[in-house]
């Protein structure tokens, strides 16, 4: 999971801009995610095709109670408020209840379960997660952070909720307000500590961790409570945080700017207990003159209703949770840097994802606490057969290659086989099932099991809408992925398509350069690069296999820089920079952010096959760049 900074969009004002103006303002400010507090049709319509991810709240406690008591109402809600907009609107989470009091918390879990079941029936549970947003006061003993525990009177609700989140691989949404803590206890909490300013260091003697701001300490207290509830792998997304700029104690423009800029800058670092990106939403977009409560409630906005900023904020980083560029780390060279040097390179270049082709112990150790998301390949064809042979083999593999490293190593996907061919293809699905079951038995819900396929598993690749799987075994794999919420990993190489047919495919079209437009009369979509057409062909095949909601993760893509037809530095740079710049847009069939991994990190001198195979690297073994590339982070 990468970093997202979003903004909460409240509409309790009689002088606010139109929904379409607000979406344009978000885009102009580089804000890639938002939260809305009910399924606002105008806002959802304005978000179509924007690339902005959204959290949708179901509404107040009455709405939660209705969904809890009536599964058919949940199905209707999903049909009217999710299916009517997805995927043109990137719905990230559905929030079932916002800061519900203890008396209403018994409604949350049944409502969440009903909404989740409705998403499963709609084939959307892999893409859209169901959660609830809690107030910090459901956690007791917040100092030191390691003592955090769910309050005794709400444990009966929070522990089952946490288990549901663990089972569905969903985050817990938490509204975190250092302002409220500081306002209520200014004698013991310094203003600098509450607003991300230097000068205060607090050590948690029980965990040994050190804190320089209150926000991180509060988040880690919730993580401690999740651990005590038996759900240490549940991720936290901060669904609200902010500081008022007027109207009350310590509510000044300077304090609000310091806190909110600190939050924005903190998103990429995470907390001492959970380093790495932290998804965070600032409350709120506007000063809302119809907010009830004390005067400060009307002054949490980053912007005035006339769209001018209340105070200057450094532009938001673009979200990298769904928009992720990784790089494949191959090791077939006798002159490559050490594993630890390579991990440091990834971090220094802002590369937030890695793929390795076997469970390499040194690489896994080097990745601990790096925050780098990992695709971990199980191994070669023999390993696929071994994992398919028995559940005990898969359990042993998970015991040896996953449990010693996770969650310190951020393993996102296990690839059971890479471009498997021949008789071993029949082993892929049973091997995936065995590994998935072994992960479940080990209590690991945050890792998805998939396989990496070559483009030739698709027949009828032109036009993209005609795509269909070439082999029957792929239909079973696609349906398994749909049932587990896992993506299909696909190795997508416009280079090979172009090299095989340069008369019909233009170089510009293959390398993200302007000048070519191709219309698919089958779906009415227009393509200006070959990569999108190839990915959408896979989506078409998934739809025909009854798995239209399975996401595609591009697990390899690249262009060689030497030793072959069209293998030049200029072409390689144009293609790979084009891919990096493109992932935030998605494809014509699936607009929005996507996840892709460039092949490869290094030129590998022991790669076999054509000479081009040894020249796909972004870097030479001495760590100098083969050509200049700019990563988004």
Automatic annotation (TrEMBL):
The keyword DNA repair does not apply. It comes from Oryza punctata (Red rice). Keywords: Glycosidase, Hydrolase. One of its GO terms (molecular function) is glucan endo-1,3-beta-D-glucosidase activity. One of its GO terms (biological process) is carbohydrate metabolic process. InterPro entries: GH, Glyco_hydro_17, Glyco_hydro_17_plant. This is Glucan endo-1,3-beta-D-glucosidase. PANTHER family: GLUCAN ENDO-1,3-BETA-GLUCOSIDASE BG1-RELATED-RELATED (PTHR32227). Gene3D superfamilies: Glycosidases. PROSITE patterns: GLYCOSYL_HYDROL_F17. It holds the Pfam family Glyco_hydro_17. The keyword Hydrolase applies. It comes from the Eukaryota. Belongs to the glycosyl hydrolase 17 family.
């Amino acid at each position: 999971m990468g970093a997202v900074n979003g903004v909460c969009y409240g509409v309790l004002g009689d002088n606010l801009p139109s929904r379409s103006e607000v979406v344009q303002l978000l885009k102009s400010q580089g804000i890639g995610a938002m939260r809305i507090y009910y399924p606002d049709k105008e806002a959802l319509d304005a978000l179509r095709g924007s690339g902005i991810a959204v959290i949708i709240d179901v509404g107040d406690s009455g709405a939660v109670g209705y969904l809890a008591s009536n599964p058919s109402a949940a199905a209707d809600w999903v049909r009217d408020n999710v299916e009517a907009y997805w995927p043109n609107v990137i719905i990230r989470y559905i929030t079932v209840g916002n800061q519900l009091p203890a008396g209403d918390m018994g409604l949350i879990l049944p409502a969440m379960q009903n909404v989740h079941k409705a998403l499963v029936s709609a084939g959307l549970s892999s893409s859209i997660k169901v959660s609830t947003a809690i107030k910090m006061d459901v956690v007791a003993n917040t100092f030191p952070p390691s003592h955090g525990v769910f309050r005794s009177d709400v444990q009966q609700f929070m522990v089952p909720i946490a288990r549901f989140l663990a089972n569905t691989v969903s985050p817990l949404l938490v509204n975190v307000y250092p302002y409220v803590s500081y306002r209520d206890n200014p004698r013991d909490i310094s203003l600098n500590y509450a607003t991300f300013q230097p000068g205060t260091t607090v050590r948690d003697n029980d965990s040994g961790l050190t804190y320089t701001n209150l926000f991180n300490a509060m988040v880690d207290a919730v993580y401690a409570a999740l651990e005590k509830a038996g759900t240490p792998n549940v991720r936290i997304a901060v669904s609200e945080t902010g500081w008022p700029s007027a109207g009350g104690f310590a509510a000044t423009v300077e304090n609000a700017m310091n806190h909110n800029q600190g939050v924005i800058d903190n998103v990429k670092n995470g907390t001492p207990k959970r380093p790495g990106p932290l998804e965070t939403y600032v409350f709120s977009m506007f000063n809302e003159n119809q907010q009830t409560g004390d005067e400060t409630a009307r002054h949490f906005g980053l912007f005035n209703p006339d769209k001018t900023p209340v105070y200057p904020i450094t532009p938001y980083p673009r979200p990298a949770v769904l928009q992720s560029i990784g790089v494949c780390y191959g090791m077939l060279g006798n002159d490559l840097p050490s594993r630890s040097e390579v991990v440091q390179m990834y971090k220094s270049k802002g590369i937030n994802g890695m793929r390795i082709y076997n469970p390499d112990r040194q690489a896994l150790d080097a990745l601990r606490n790096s925050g780098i998301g990992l695709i971990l390949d199980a191994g070669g064809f023999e390993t696929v057969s071994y994992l398919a042979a028995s559940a005990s083999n898969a359990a042993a593999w998970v015991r040896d290659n996953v449990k010693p490293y996770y969650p310190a190593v951020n393993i996102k996907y296990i690839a059971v086989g890479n471009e498997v061919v021949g008789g071993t293809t029949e082993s892929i699905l049973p091997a995936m099932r065995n590994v998935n079951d072994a992960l479940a038995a080990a209590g690991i819900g945050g890792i998805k099991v998939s396989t990496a396929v070559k483009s030739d598993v698709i027949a009828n690749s032109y036009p993209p809408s005609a795509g269909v799987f070439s082999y029957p075994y792929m239909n079973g794999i696609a349906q398994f992925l749909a049932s587990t919420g896992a993506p299909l990993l696909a190795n997508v190489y416009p280079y090979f398509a172009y090299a095989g047919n340069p008369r019909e495919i233009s170089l510009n079209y293959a390398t993200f350069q302007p000048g070519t437009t191709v219309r698919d009369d089958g779906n009415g979509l227009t393509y200006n690069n070959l990569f999108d057409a190839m990915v959408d062909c896979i989506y078409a095949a998934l739809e025909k296999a009854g798995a239209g909601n399975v996401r595609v993760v591009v697990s390899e893509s690249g262009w060689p820089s030497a030793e072959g037809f069209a293998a030049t530095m200029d072409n390689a740079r144009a293609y790979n920079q084009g891919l990096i710049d493109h992932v935030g847009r998605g494809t014509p069939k699936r607009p929005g952010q996507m996840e892709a991994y460039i092949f490869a990190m290094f030129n590998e001198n022991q790669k076999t096959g054509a000479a081009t195979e040894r020249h796909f690297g972004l870097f030479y073994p001495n760590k100098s760049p083969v050509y200049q590339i700019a990563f988004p982070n």
